[in-house]
């Protein structure tokens, strides 16, 4: 369950988890708002239920999950967890994509922590909890062929092959700190470098104004084929003011890009400071200096790929761990869940 009309990190995770569980043979339903883009990103084996109004959402969720005979109700992001808590008689699980908030999560039976620091904030929580890292969702033209652009990034934007390209992926919202990134880029990046922001959101007009008439800064909007776009970049910057576990950083790691990131909880846990630059939040000067140094190193290393240890962020392992948590919650409630452990890792990957 996730109540969002657009797709960002938490929504991508919900979609990919639902698709993986359906591929393993589970009966999976997703509840969200009517008309959401989420419906069209789900596997054909997953049924979507769109609620037209947010009124009495908890009551409607309780009735719908009872009608469906759901054993597990899994909420993603705060509003969905709050509604899932009303589904009494079901095992209620929530994922802390943003962080623990008692009014959203205290009544859940179990919580998935996406970083180890979150565990320390669960002192008043009586249910089960488990640290399960997210994984980088597949976002390429191969999996979203009808939605991907046909041209390469550089051809589309007129960027020379020799120019250095800095990328950032995320919702255009003040919490993502892209206004700081634009300032850092304009002050410190080489004159021939380009900055590409991928995403959509309420801060677009403000970012357009900050960009002014700088032809090197591109607001690309929402794109499905993030993997291909990252493949044409030279540096990834995560400028967020707060992140629990940024999927975009995982995508940049998978693309083997050097990374500059603000010192959020997620970035500090995911990145090795010896291999990536971690800078203070909202510090345009520090970010700009780190960007300049990273680009210098990129040229010096002849754009050599950066190798990251991705074993902790394995999709199949995380799906198995999530199903294991479901089993444990149901066992505590005296309910036996059908065991699909015999299916292979390839099945889990869908």
Q: Could you give a short account of the major beta sheet?
A: 6 strands, parallel
Q: What sequence of helices (H) and strands (E) makes up the elements? A: HEHEHEHEHEEHEHEHEHEHEHEHHH
Q: How many domain units?
A: 2
**Strand segment tally:** 12
What integer is the average pLDDT?
90
**Shape assignment:** elongated
Order of strands, main sheet, comes to 9-8-7-10-11-12
- CATH top level of the largest domain is Alpha Beta
Structural class: alpha/beta
Your description of this structure?
The chain is built from 14 helices and twelve strands. With 350 residues, it is of the alpha/beta class. The strands form three sheets. The chain has a six-stranded parallel β-sheet, with helices on both faces. Helix 7 packs parallel to helix 8 and helix 7 (178-188) crosses helix 12 (284-300). The longest helix has 18 residues, at 315-332.
What is shown here, in short?
This protein is an alpha/beta fold. 35% of the residues lie in helices and 15% in strands. Helix 7 (178-188) links the parallel strand 7 (165-169) and strand 8 (194-198).
